[in-house]
């Protein structure tokens, strides 16, 4: 078909291909989740249903978009890591991040009731997204360290804050004031001496956030021909709650940075 006289408008679209041979990271973040968490009565400081739903969405995204090798999530955010060698959508930034965030949000709505049961979804949740490229393995690891350290700092603060309010009888303003200027060790101390909480014993999912990797897993399916059970090994996106700042995680998964 001949080009229409209107087709020149195509040239107003700018190319946004990300640099070759760099790590691509797509981070999505819930829009206004301060309000969203209140509207849906999220437990404080952490709502396990909300975390499990976020993890489920990330797993569904990874099942669909095979280029993603790892995802890391905490609070209302998730980061998806795409390797240097990937040519996904010709590395077009907006194509990649809009596809990932849209898939994530639709899964969030689709699976909401499985995690929240009788608590009805009050309004449509929304997530923003961005694509960033990182030039080498060190910067990529530093990026993930930054997000996990953020999880740790916020979780320690929130755990102490809500202990002071819920168990210590302080108002939110008083708790805020009590914690102003305190260091990590002071919060550990408050938790331990005032509330007999040993922060080290808090579940790793809250302290470390969630990392999704493709784990070799035995899966059973029914052969369409024979009707018999067939067992085979498959790479299945699976949530783990480990430290990803130290070297141990990366040494245990050398395939990630190869
Ligand atoms: P934004 O991202 O600029 O649109 O604004 P927000 O409100 O989403 O703020 P953000 O992303 O900095 O912080 C995440 C909010 O979500 C924060 O207010 C705490 C809340 N949130 C996330 N997970 C939980 C949870 O498990 N329990 C509770 N109670 N709140 C949570
Ligand atoms: Mg947010
Ligand atoms: Mg956030």
Strand content: 15-25%
Gyration radius over CA: 22 Å
Broad structural category: alpha+beta
Largest sheet descriptor: 6 strands, antiparallel
The geometry reads as globular
SS element count, helices: 8
Taking the alpha carbons of the first and last residues, their distance comes to 46 Å
Low-pLDDT ranges:
none
Helix content class: 40-55%
Strand order of the largest sheet: 4-1-3-2-5-6
Give, in order, the helices and strands: EHHEEHEHHHHEEH
How many strand elements? Answer: 6
The small molecules bound here are: 2'-deoxyguanosine-5'-triphosphate, magnesium ion
Give the rounded overall mean pLDDT. Answer: 97
Structure description:
The chain is α+β, with helices and mostly antiparallel strands and 258 residues long. Helices cover 42% and strands 20% of the residues. The chain contains eight helices and six strands. The chain has helices spanning 33-39, 48-64, 93-116, 137-166, 172-179, 184-195, 204-208, 247-252, and strands at residues 23-30, 70-74, 77-82, 127-134, 210-222, 229-240. A six-stranded antiparallel β-sheet has the order 4-1-3-2-5-6, sandwiched between helices. Strand 5 (210-222) and strand 6 (229-240) form a beta hairpin. Helix 4 packs parallel to helix 6. The longest helix has 30 residues, at 137-166. One magnesium ion is lined by residues 29, 75-77.
């Amino acid at each position: 078909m001949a080009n229409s006289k209107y087709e020149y408008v195509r040239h107003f679209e700018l190319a946004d291909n990300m640099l070759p041979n760099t790590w691509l990271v797509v981070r999505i973040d819930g829009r206004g989740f301060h309000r969203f968490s209140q509207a849906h009565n999220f437990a404080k400081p952490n709502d396990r249903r909300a975390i499990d739903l976020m993890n489920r969405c990330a797993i569904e995204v990874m099942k669909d978009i095979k280029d993603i090798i790892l995802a890391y999530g905490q609070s209302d955010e998730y980061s998806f890591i795409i390797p240097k060698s990937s040519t996904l959508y010709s590395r077009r930034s907006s194509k990649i991040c809009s596809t990932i965030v849209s898939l994530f949000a639709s899964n969030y709505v689709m699976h909401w009731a499985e995690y929240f049961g009788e608590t009805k979804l009050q309004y449509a949740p929304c997530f923003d997204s961005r694509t960033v490229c990182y030039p080498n393995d060190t910067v990529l690891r530093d990026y993930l360290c930054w997000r996990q350290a953020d999880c740790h700092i916020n979780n320690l603060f929130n755990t102490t804050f809500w202990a002071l309010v819920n168990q210590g009888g302080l108002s939110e303003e008083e708790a805020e004031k009590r914690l102003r200027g305190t260091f990590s060790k002071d919060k550990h101390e408050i938790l331990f001496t005032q509330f007999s909480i040993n922060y080290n014993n808090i579940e790793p999912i809250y302290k470390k956030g969630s990392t999704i990797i493709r784990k070799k897993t035995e899966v059973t399916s029914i052969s369409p021909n024979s009707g018999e059970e067939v067992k085979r090994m498959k790479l299945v996106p699976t949530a783990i709650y480990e430290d990803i700042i130290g070297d141990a995680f990366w040494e245990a998964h050398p395939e990630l940075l190869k």
